[in-house]
Amino acid sequence: MTAVSQDPDSHPDPRTAAALERWRMILGAPASGYGSLAGENAARDAALDWLYGRDEDLARRGVRKGGAGSADPSKGPGGSGDSVLTTVDWLEGITKLFPKETVDRLTRDAVDRYQIHDIVTDPKVLERVEPSPVLLKAVLRTKHLMDPKVLELARKLVAAVIEELMRKLATEVRTAFSGARLRRPSQVRLARNFDVKRTLRGNLGHYQPQERKLYIEDAHFFTRSRRHVDNWQVILLVDQSGSMLSSVIHSAVTAACLWGLPGVRTHLVAFDTAVVDLTSDVTDPVELLMKVQLGGGTDISGAIRYASELVANPRRTIVVLISDLYEGGSEAGLLRGARSLIEQGCRFLALCALDEEAAPAFDRDMAERLAALGAYVGAMTPGELAAFVAEAVNS
């Protein structure tokens, strides 16, 4: 086999060059000795460095130099001095350089990981930013920092996100509640109301084995009247601590979608160390969320006591406690209140998460103790909760 030598002055394999560029992008500035970037890749690298270059852990390990990035993503990388790039410039740059999924991830890291609050407190940024659940959470966390003008812009962002969440959940709620109908005998003979099963059962005596035919003398029909339901109460108790923010948002949307359904009376109660009944604002989830005060301690037993005062008919009541179950008040009081509601006949749900991901983090010991009392303990999406309510109401 004859070895083939390669002219060192020849052009590199494009595939190799592309692979090196990808690794250079992954490793960032520390890998700059292995090749340079140009064009959009240089701008992408600069945008990433503006955000992740402020990671103190990387600075301590000597992986990156200094604090807040080093370049304008629209012009490529620069020196290691202080950045003159504003959040507005950075946001405008990444929306041009990356796909939407990446922009959402970068925005989430900027808000959650690096606490870059001007993404939701700077009116110039709010005017440009695309509404998303990530930014909705950021607005709710920082709304106390906003002046009236910024707050009005933020409210529009909240409204846009809530409208989309409402649209999705309203479809699931309609589906869950649409099948509740009774079939009652009717003298009105319409083909669409033909009762096949009852007709077959009622005419089995007219079956002719030799002919293998069933002769129908009496045809039966039914009415498609909607099932009558007794009034049910659904009491949502929502822990408004910061860790439960996603569940707070989805609780507000769920309450709004359940509001006004036939046979269902909805209450929404938020709590930390105090209890606030937000039922009067259920029809306007945007206004409701703008009133929520995140943080503080947690007194679950106090919320359960308040719920017990709202119960009119225990056997027609669903109490939904949405909390991570880390009790800051009386654990004995929490368990005593839950036991009382369950023994009276209430259906008691302890949901450690109510959101689209339904990924809970919670006090497992308390969850086990509530389950032993007869509570349903778990996590649900809003659609699953709506289906649970529909099944109970129509049973």
Automatic annotation (TrEMBL):
Gene3D superfamilies: von Willebrand factor, type A domain. Transmembrane segments: none annotated. Coiled coil: none annotated. InterPro entries: LolB, Uncharacterised_CoxE, VWF_A, vWFA_dom_sf. SUPFAM superfamilies: vWA-like. It comes from the Bacteria. Residues 231-390 form the VWFA domain. Residues 63-83 are annotated as: Disordered. Pfam families: VWA_CoxE. PANTHER family: OUTER MEMBRANE LOLAB LIPOPROTEIN INSERTION APPARATUS, OUTER-MEMBRANE LIPOPROTEIN LOLB. This is VWA domain-containing protein. The lineage of its organism: Bacteria, Bacillati, Actinomycetota, Actinomycetes, Catenulisporales.
